[in-house]
Amino acid sequence: MSDRSKLIATGKPFKFDKKYDTEFERLVKRYPSRESMILPALWLVQEQEGWVCEEAIGYVADRIGTFASKVYEVATFYTMMNLHPVGKYHICVCRTLSCWLRGKQEIVNYFRDELNLTPGKTTEDKKFSLEEVECLGHCGSAPVLQINGEFYENMDVDKVKKLLATFK
Amino acid sequence: MTEMIKLFVNGEEVEVESGKNLIDALEKVGIEIPHFCYHPALGADGNCRMCLVGIEEGRPPVVPACKTPAKEGMKVLLDADHIKKIQHDVMELEFINHPTDCPICDQAGECKLQDYYMKYEGTESRMRVPQVKKRKVQDFGGGVIHDQERCVACGRCVRFLRQITKTGELGLVNRGDDCRVEFFPGRPINNRYGLNVVDLCPVGALTSADFRFKQRAWFLKRAESICHGCSKGCNIMVDHNKEKYEDDIIYRIRPRHNEQVNGWFMCDAGRMTYKSENDNRLEECTLAGTVRPLTDILADAQSRIEKASKALFLVSPSASLEQLVAVQALAEKTGAAVSAFSDGYIVKDDGDDFLIKDDKAANRTGVDLLSIAKSRTHFDNMAKEADVFINFDNDLSRSLSEEQIGKLFKDTWVLNAATHPGHLGTAMAGKAGASVALRSWSEYHGVVVNCDGIAQKFVGGVMKNIERPDIVEIAAGLGSPATGAAAAWALVQKKIPALAEFGSFLELPAEGVNLTDNEAGK
Amino acid sequence: MTTLDIVMVIVRVSISAFVPLCFLAVCVTMERRVAGFVQDRSGPNRAGIYGFRAGGLVQNLADGIKLAFKEDIISEHVEHKFLYVLAPIISMAAAIISFALIPFADTLVLDGKAYVMQGIPWDTGILWFLAVTGFSVYGIILAGWSSTNKYSLLGALRSASQVISYEIPMGLAVISLLIVYGSINLSDIARFQGQNWLGFIPMWGIFLQPLAAVIFIVAAFAECNRTPFDLAEGESELVAGFHLEYSAMKFAVFFMGEYVAMFASSAVIVTLFFGGYNIPFFSTDFLIRNIKPVAFVMLVILPVFMFYFAKWIRRNNRSQYPRENDPREAEATVYIRCFWILIGVIEVFLLAILAFAQPDTAAAHLLVALMQICTFLLKVTLMLFVYVWVRWTIPRFRYDQLQILGWQKLLPLALLNIFVTGAIVVALG
Amino acid sequence: MAAKVKQLPSRGGTPAEKVYLIEIFKGMGITLRHFLRNLWDNSNLYVRHYPEVQPNIPAHWRGRHRLLTHSDGTPKCVACFMCQTNCPANCIMIKAGERTDGITEKMPVSFTIDLAECIYCGYCVEACPEDAIRMDTGIYAFTSSNREEMKIEMDEMLSLKGGYTEEEYQKGLEDE
């Protein structure tokens, strides 16, 4: 596991777009306490920006009215929160037992050889970024890839090759 | 009286107070259950798992003592093999990433990890993989230095800042073995109670930048005292030490637990009051600009008081009851006026609803109890009449400007007995009079009454190389009937009957005597 | 009073006053060298003047100079400064004058006039010694008390009670002696011991009164505060005891007083028990009558003795480690030459006596007196050696042991000795 | 392993011994024998003729202290005060401060040993967790004309070199 405590600041103030603002206001009413909004709000940030920057966390904390450190805790705890910019296609490779046994490493190696992409990195054209994640919960159909929220099951190098072709 | 219940610890019957959790209840009767994250002021968190105890014939069989209330007939196991193994394993886990830098760690000597290692583990590490490296010296703001590697992630600091000060600067970020305490970038600790996290930290992860590397904990001598920084009267422990060939100096001030006054905490400003005890102290006794022995000065002052048409004594609202009474008795004998004028000690809107008070005088309630006048008009009138003025450590420069002081005592002979220079401002510096260097509160014993009317004793353990007199001694030297600490205490008892039952001030209970119901309230 | 009378007074007084002081150097050197040799060390052997070390004597000189020039401190807490300064003077003075009544040669007859060879020709004899040494403890008590120091006071208290305890057996031992000698005059006592018993055993006190001798010697050790009875100093318990607060010359005076007292009590022991100035088997009369043979024998013996003495110096005065042109050998050569010159002078003297002197003349009397003085000093030196020897052999007593020895052992023994002696004297008529 | 205790028969009980004198004379006989032997010929004294004959100092001899340095010349000492804590003579005085060279966080600002008070017990060497102080300089004689000069400072102790090679020192530790 890696240290996620180093946040990246964009230098620009963060603000929800109008769409996400209304979404936030809608969601906030669903919860008995405003603090419950931390996770949904972070999701909204990630939807808007693709990743969560330092300013965003501060913004979310102020918006909810809680301690920034609390939002910070949540953002660093959940690895689904991208704390650094990702490419257009954010590829998550499950690295937990079943997927590993069923050949996750070949897929990772393929990315390395083909796109010069190693886990935690983004390609230079900002198109792909790769990440190894913990169990995605589809062990029955390992190995699993998750790309921008979509699941791709029973993967192997050939399938990945075809898949990538559709993205280009 | 709280209700008592009986339970069994390791098969032996123990009687404890009900309504408490096992850690607190058993600690009262001297049985220690190891714990990191639990703190009586912060409540149970249950994350460290060190306080797991066995419950015989119970469900579940192993419970965290911090979250388990003591119940009648409970059979607690502390030294069973499986409990020992749990403690051993928890300790081993804590040590996986803990750097062994006790030699440079300020906490060494008062560190729970050290203590528990010696008590519960004591084996060599089995880890052969490199430890997780984290940041070493991190400034948390507010004078707190953080060492992430030493942290055991108990979260006491986080909970203190969220529950007590409600500022929540710190959070436990990341997870697993990367978990660490951090503040959100740009929002470091910024409150007036921040240094309490240093005391709360059971290990050396949070250290005080002020105390850092100054002295090792085991060299420090402790004196149970009362903070003189404001009228709250927080109970403190004065940690001082006299290095070879050097003066006895205070290295730090820590809060001492007293539930009815300050709980477990104190403010940062109070902690820093030790600096003025160490530095910039008045050292010499002078008479008309030349250094003279104290006896000469007192003899001179005494003859002047006798000749004077009117003398005025100004006492400090931070002085102890004994000192106040000694000066008062002296004034009664010589027909002098006593004032405790000290408007400048009150700093408007500085206080809060926790520990910091507006009034920066430690014993104003005591002044009121002894019915010493403290109004501006009384002081002004008396000052105009008086031709001898003796200031007993009242920092008049707080209340009046230099010109005002100079004007008031233009033709008056002034004896300034003070702990620090500048109490009468620089205007008085050139004036022919006398000045006496006094002992400060860390050097004498006494009793002060705080803003809530709680009389508390304090013990001064610091022994400076330069011997200075106490106000009681000076008053006695000027002819006060209170010839010593014991005589002064007897006078205090005469004036404040609520204290009459205590033969000496040392017999006051540690938690103080609440005078509000009878004396202070009238 | 003739000129001779005055000269003789000066001579006697100066001998009894200055000999103890001169013997200080001997005492101290002996103390150090004997201590060294007993412990297989070498003792002081470095301090020297141009390489001449005089067997450690120069070390004493150096120490003396050091003590004389040290800062003389009187602590501020000493309230009675006069008594504080007086204390060492008392102990020194008492030690010196206790020697005053000791005869160091037989009565000298010059021009038909008899001169008693004592510092003060007085009849009080041994009582004087007992009185004056008893007085010396005042010095110690005053020192201990006026120092305002608990260690000093303890030392002084110990010393006081120790002296009280040991004066009694000492006095009782002397009583049994007096029964035998029939006089308290030390000159009479010394002359009495000049006789021979059955012709070949000298009638010395040690043979007449062996028990009294032991008791007296032990008590004398205690009176002098010498090991094993030096509890007044007891450095392991009392730092330095009564003289803890003293420095420089005042300390030196205490120090010298101790050695002078040791010398004086050695002299008394010699006088009481070891025949005083008497040369064994040869009475004064015999020597005066046979002055020529005596001078001749000495004429022969001295060079022989010197020959072996020179060999001894050669053997022992050299460096014990490899060294080129060993300066110590040169030093030894100088010593040997000096000694030979001295012997030569004495030889010339003896030759003159042999050639010109007749028996029973002033020259004969003087020679015999000189021989007796030398004998006396030799005996005293041997007794001093015993003092030193005991010191470096026997550890210090514990205080209760000291008192038990004094009161439970020595006192009954002394009393017993008086009764037995008295009974025998009465029985023999 | 049980300690090896040699039981000695107690002395002084027999009547002959109770009459002190016999035993005293025996003892005096022994001392006299030594005295006469040495008086006769003093070449057998058990004395080293120092300073002409210098002693051979073994590697585990506790001489004057030195502070060890890292290879870059910075002190190994981290100012943990262990030596000061253990010092029975109370002769070590340390003042600690921040360290900026990145090796650790703490280092001594001043490190003073009062050699006039030191009893050379070596506890400081044993207590040191960093092997930063040693007494292996082999310097056993040092004097000064006043007390102040007997206090040695950190710079002086850092500049001292060990009197032995590392192997000799380690072997000396084993011999000890």
Features:
heterotetramer; B: 522 residues; alpha+beta; Ubiquitin-like (UB roll); Alpha-Beta Plaits; N-terminal domain of TfIIb; seven-stranded mixed β-sheet; 16 helices; 23 strands; 25% helix; D: 176 residues; 2 domains; three-stranded antiparallel β-sheet; two-stranded antiparallel sheet; 6 helices; 28% helix
Number of helices of chain B: 16
Strands of chain D, total number: 5
State the domain count of chain D: 2
Kindly report the oligomeric state of this protein. heterotetramer
* CATH architecture tag of the largest domain in chain B: 3-Layer(aba) Sandwich
At the first level of CATH, what is the class of the largest domain in chain D?
Alpha Beta
Strand content of chain B: 15-25%
CATH class division of the largest domain in chain B? Alpha Beta
Secondary-structure element order of chain D, as H and E? HHEHEEHEEHH
Helix run count of chain D: 6
Q: Please provide the count of β strands of chain B.
A: 23
Radius of gyration of chain D: 24 Å
The name CATH uses for the topology of the largest domain in chain B is Rossmann fold
Describe the 3D structure.
The complex is a heterotetramer of chains A (168), B (522), C (429) and D (176). Chain B has 522 residues and is of the alpha+beta class. Chain B is built from 16 helices and 23 strands. Chain B has helices spanning 22-28, 81-96, 112-120, 156-164, 196-200, 268-271, 274-278, 294-307, 321-334, 364-369, 376-385, 396-399, 402-408, 471-477, 485-495, 516-520, and strands at residues 4-9, 12-17, 52-55, 62-64, 75-77, 138-141, 144-146, 170-173, 180-183, 206-208, 221-226, 235-242, 248-255, 286-287, 290-291, 311-315, 337-339, 388-392, 413-418, 434-437, 446-449, 454-458, 513-514. Chain C has one domain. Chain D is built from 6 helices and 5 strands; from the N terminus they run H-H-E-H-E-E-H-E-E-H-H. In chain D, the strands form 2 sheets. Chain D has a 3-stranded antiparallel β-sheet. In chain D, strands 1-4 form a two-stranded antiparallel ribbon. In chain D, strand 2 (92-98) and strand 3 (106-114) form a beta hairpin. The radius of gyration of chain D is 24 Å and the shape is elongated. In chain D, 24% of the residues are buried. Chains in contact: A-B, B-D, C-D.
